Amino acid sequence: MSNLMMMMQEMARAMTIQAQTAAAARVPTGSLDQDRPPSSKRIICSKSFNRLAKFSKGEDNWKEYNFEFGVILGSESPDMLETLKVLESMASEVDTGMVRALDEGRADRMNLEKMSKELYEVLVITTEGEARLMVRNIISQDGIQAWHRLYRHYNRRTF
Fold this sequence. Notes:
Distance between the termini: 37 Å
Radius of gyration: 16 Å
Shape: globular
């Protein structure tokens, strides 16, 4: 019975993520926030992450959180998701400066620093307990560094 309940919960989560992705795909680009200058538009909308269960600790919880986080982030900013996927293989501490050094042209196209700040905000909103403490310890509010630190700590695969 408990296995059935767990399977139903997983299906409900997957359906929620699919609905969010479909809703994001239906929003016409360029129609929102037309009155604001381009520099003030958000690249990563934190509201999209509201339904994501907060992550606090644990390798199993991390796997679920990271999967759902990736699905939502991929619909918000495919460039940032691709960047984070590349960084998964790096064992040493990574920050926005290192990512910029790897490919400056791409970093400029992505508006990397702004996107990293928005990623940091999303991580603060979607974490609690031990995980939020790890995020808060990134004084520079570098979202890439915060995500990478969480990834290295909770993803126990050998690099």
